[in-house]
User: Which sequence fits this backbone?
């Protein structure tokens, strides 16, 4: 990086960090149900309880989830050298959803069933990893195979979810639909801590691979000639990306397009260097999802729109625009 | 101990399809080795095997007496720099970023070291890329792109350069410029293996010619003058002849 590039890098990183911090600090105070700020200041219920037990954890969950989805999306785009590679396109999200839906359909989903749903979602995502590992061993391992496999996984999982849905009773059916809508719900702090312990090291690993990801976007031949073991890096990246997507999807349900929109928007601003693109996507993803969630719980208050609806409504047209621009 | 030793190196697809068949040779010092042969003769595959892009199914390859299969890809990339014909068109980086990729084998940290920066400046100066170092790589002409890729390979600091048909899309002037650069690189101590269809330039500038056909090394001549035209005709299936210019320079011509 030249000196001018370095200055731009610092500006871009500080800006994205400040935006993320600002949204995380401001957004918990905004919401559909009017909040009495003076009571909040005196730490009196119900306002203080709502703030500390609902809005703050929601904001933190949105921050962590947005960061995880955006950074894994940016990484998949480099690994597969495809602008449209996202966790959703690769089948990871669908497999995690199927895992969760199976648990909802066959178990009594009281509060005790919630960790079971998480485990099933991560297990579903894990099946995709196993499939990729099998592909790698069978020596049929290329970006195209991975993307096509993702298309197949998506189709199979959607069909299976539809089947379970059609067999389920009304209550179950409602639960399945609700889960599939993708929602940032208030979760308990220990859950957030566990999630952060998974997401933070995974994001740091992706950041440490920034230069390798840069070179991998030149194509496999060039990268291999510069000493990169592309197959190994793709495999490792897939593992870490699945962990990120599986862990967050398990809690929020499928949230579409964050992994697509955020890295693309950020790339337009900071350029293609992953050493900038990744950290800026992490902060930008967090900020983006916090904003979407704030919109989701404010515009039609007291009705809360699932955040997945907001991201999809924005992401769908964006996706089309991206295809047209190509 | 030779710089590069190939011992019955072979590669095959499936059970019987040989891409490279038992190639053996010892290369002890700097020089330009031109790999000639028709399409599908195994030139690119041989370069891939030496660069570690493909794993040999038979034989071995040693650099400075060390088997390349015992090296990590990163170690190998410090000794051997492979240059493909071209990069995918959509590479969104600037010229100097492309050259800097050559430094990746020297440390995978997030930032380049001062040593990396120095190597970048040397490579850019040597290839005379100062004028367009900040331009997007994708905006360059074919000849400029080739110079950038070669600069990246020299930036890598590897003694052995493997060039896979680098002049395929170049106009005559850029072809000649490329070969002049190769001669300079040879003089600075590089061993260069180049797969090419530019028979005349290869005959003129290279120190040794390897003629390949059906995956096998069918002729290995020490100097271009010793090139056996009969062997060339057998492989390429067109007549060859030497043409002597008024100044007494030899050119290789072909055609019916």
Assistant:
């Amino acid at each position: 990086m030249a000196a001018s590039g370095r200055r731009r890098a610092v500006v871009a990183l500080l800006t994205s960090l400040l935006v993320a911090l600002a949204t995380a600090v401001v957004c918990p105070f905004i919401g559909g149900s009017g909040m009495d700020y003076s009571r909040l200041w005196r730490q009196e219920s119900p306002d203080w309880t709502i703030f500390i037990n609902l809005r703050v954890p929601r904001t933190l969950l949105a921050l962590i989830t947005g960061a995880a989805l955006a950074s894994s999306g940016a990484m998949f785009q480099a690994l597969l050298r495809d602008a449209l590679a996202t966790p959703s396109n690769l089948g990871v999200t669908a497999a995690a959803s199927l895992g969760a839906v199976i648990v909802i359909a066959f178990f009594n989903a009281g509060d005790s069933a919630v960790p079971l749903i998480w485990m099933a979602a991560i297990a579903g995502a894990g099946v995709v990893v196993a499939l990729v590992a099998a592909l790698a061993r069978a020596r049929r391992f290329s970006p195209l195979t991975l993307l096509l496999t993702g298309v197949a996984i998506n189709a199979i999982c959607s069909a299976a979810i539809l089947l379970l849905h059609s067999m389920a009773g009304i209550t179950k059916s409602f639960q399945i639909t609700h889960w599939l809508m993708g929602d940032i719900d208030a979760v308990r702090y220990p859950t957030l801590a566990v999630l952060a312990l998974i997401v933070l090291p995974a994001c740091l690993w992706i950041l440490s691979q920034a230069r390798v990801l840069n070179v991998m976007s030149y194509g496999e031949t060039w990268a291999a000639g510069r000493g990169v073991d592309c197959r190994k890096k793709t495999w490792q990246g897939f593992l870490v990306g699945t962990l990120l997507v599986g862990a967050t999807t398990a809690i929020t349900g499928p949230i579409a397009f964050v992994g697509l929109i955020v890295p693309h928007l950020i790339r337009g601003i900071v350029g293609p260097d992953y050493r900038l693109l990744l950290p800026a996507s992490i902060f930008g993803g967090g900020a983006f999802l916090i904003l979407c969630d704030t919109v989701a719980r404010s515009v039609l208050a007291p009705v809360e729109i699932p955040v997945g609806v907001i991201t999809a409504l924005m992401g769908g047209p964006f996706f089309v625009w991206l295809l047209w621009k190509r | 101990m030779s710089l590069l030793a190939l011992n019955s190196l072979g590669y095959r697809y499936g059970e019987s399809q040989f891409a490279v068949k038992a190639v053996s040779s010892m290369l002890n010092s700097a020089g330009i080795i031109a790999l000639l042969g028709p399409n599908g003769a195994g030139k690119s595959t041989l370069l891939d095997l030496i660069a570690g892009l493909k794993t040999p199914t038979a034989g071995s390859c040693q650099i400075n007496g060390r088997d390349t299969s015992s090296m990590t890809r990163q170690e190998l990339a410090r000794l051997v720099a492979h240059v493909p014909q071209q990069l995918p068109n959509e590479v969104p980086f600037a010229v100097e970023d492309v050259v800097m990729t050559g430094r990746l084998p020297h440390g995978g940290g997030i930032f380049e070291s001062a040593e990396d920066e120095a190597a970048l400046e040397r490579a850019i100066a040597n290839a005379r890329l100062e004028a367009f170092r900040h331009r997007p790589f994708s905006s360059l002409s074919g000849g400029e792109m080739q110079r950038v890729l070669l600069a990246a390979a020299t930036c890598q600091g590897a003694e052995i350069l493997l060039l896979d048909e680098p002049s395929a899309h170049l106009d005559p002037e850029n072809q000649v410029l490329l070969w002049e650069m190769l001669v300079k690189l040879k003089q600075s101590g590089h061993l260069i293996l180049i797969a090419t269809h530019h028979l005349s330039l290869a005959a003129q500038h290279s120190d040794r010619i390897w003629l390949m056909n059906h995956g096998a090394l069918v002729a290995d001549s020490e100097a271009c003058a010793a090139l056996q035209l009969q062997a060339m005709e057998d492989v390429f299936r067109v007549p060859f002849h030497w043409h002597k210019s008024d100044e007494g320079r030899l050119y290789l011509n072909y055609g019916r």
Remarks:
- Chain A has a mean pLDDT of 84.
- Chain A touches chain B through 25 residues (CB under 8 Å).
- Chain A has one domain: 82-325.
